[in-house]
Design brief:
By secondary structure, this protein is α/β, with parallel strands linked by helices. It has 3 domains: 109 residues, 3-Layer(aba) Sandwich (Cobalt-precorrin-4 Transmethylase, domain 1), CATH 3.40.1010; 104 residues, 2-Layer Sandwich (Methyltransferase, Cobalt-precorrin-4 Transmethylase, Domain 2); 43 residues, no CATH class. The protein is 40% helix and 17% strand. The protein has a 5-stranded parallel sheet with strand order 3-2-4-1-5, sandwiched between helices. Strands 6-7-10-8-9 form a 5-stranded mixed sheet. β2, α2 and β3 form a beta-alpha-beta unit. The longest helix is centred in the N-terminal third of the chain and has 13 residues. The chain is elongated and about 75 Å long. The termini are far apart. The relative contact order is 0.11.
């Protein structure tokens, strides 16, 4: 058999009991990075033989592994973190094993996509995962333009070095949307930054971002449209009936209702002499 074993994305305690048993029982473990995986195996006293199977050699080395499994050996495949094949190596080995008639068994566990979504506060009943955005600006913008009309919540991976440029592109192409930056999931410095794109950009403006980034952005909804200044003022006025709401509270409520940036709503309020 070929076992596809999900491993922790940060906190080593996030491995399942079944994964520990499988990694202990198989004849061999194929790993994206043996140095990385050895730390996990050492933490759980697993002494199974390990071999390297990273991106550049996956096609070349899959054949010998297939032959071993065809001869009766059980092999587990792990990537550096999370579920193999999800923006990680593994697809070629899995496809070759299936074509060879070898049973492929998933050992589910951690995935940064699901972990980020579960705590995002954005709709989870319908989502689309796009993996890593292209590093080149025009290619990234082309992908975002294709995603602009998507109604499901969207999940992307992004590098910390490109995060601010990516947020700028999202704001310009997709307009005002709610967005979550999930950083360093399950690790000591885990952080969720939530708000409109404008809010998140402002929060990160003076920061030097580090760590692994998962971006979650809401899909296009009925509220994802351009609101005129007059429409915003009407919504603000409708909230004046509650004496407990300050102008800041009203701006926040209208931002939640429309998806428009708080900064723009506040400027409209001031320009319209609203108080």
């Amino acid at each position: 058999m070929l076992y596809i074993v999900a491993t922790p994305i940060g906190n080593l305690e996030d491995i399942t009991l079944r994964a520990i048993r499988i990694l202990t029982e198989v004849d061999e473990i194929a790993a994206e990075d043996t140095r990385h995986t050895k730390k996990l195996l050492k933490a759980y006293n697993i002494s199974t033989p390990i071999t390297s199977l990273y991106d550049a050699v996956e096609k070349k080395r899959s054949g010998p592994l297939i032959e071993k499994m065809a001869a009766g050996k059980d092999i587990a495949y792990v990537s550096d973190a999370g579920t193999p094949g999800i923006s990680d190596p593994g697809f070629h080995l899995i496809r070759e094993a299936i074509q060879a008639g070898i049973r492929v068994v998933p050992i589910p566990g951690v995935s940064a996509v699901v972990a980020a979504l579960s705590a995002s506060g954005l709709p989870m009943h319908n989502f689309v995962f796009h993996g890593f955005l292209p590093s080149k600006i025009m290619q990234r913008r082309d992908i975002l333009k294709m995603c602009e009309a998507e109604k499901g919540t969207m999940v992307f991976y992004e590098s910390p070095q490109r995060l601010k440029a990516c947020l700028k592109d999202m704001r310009e192409i997709m307009g005002p949307r709610r967005l979550v930056v999930a950083r360093e999931l399950t690790k000591i410095h885990e952080e969720f930054i939530r708000g409109t794109i404008d809010d998140v950009e402002k929060e990160l403006e003076e920061r030097n971002i580090k760590g692994e980034i998962t971006l979650i952005i809401e899909g296009k909804t009925n509220n994802s449209r351009d609101y005129s200044d007059d429409e915003i003022l009407v919504l603000l006025t409708e909230l004046t009936g509650d004496p407990l709401l300050s102008l800041r509270d009203r701006v926040h409520c209208v931002a939640e209702m429309t998806g428009c940036s708080r900064k723009n709503i506040y400027q409209i309020a001031l320009t319209g002499k609203f108080s």
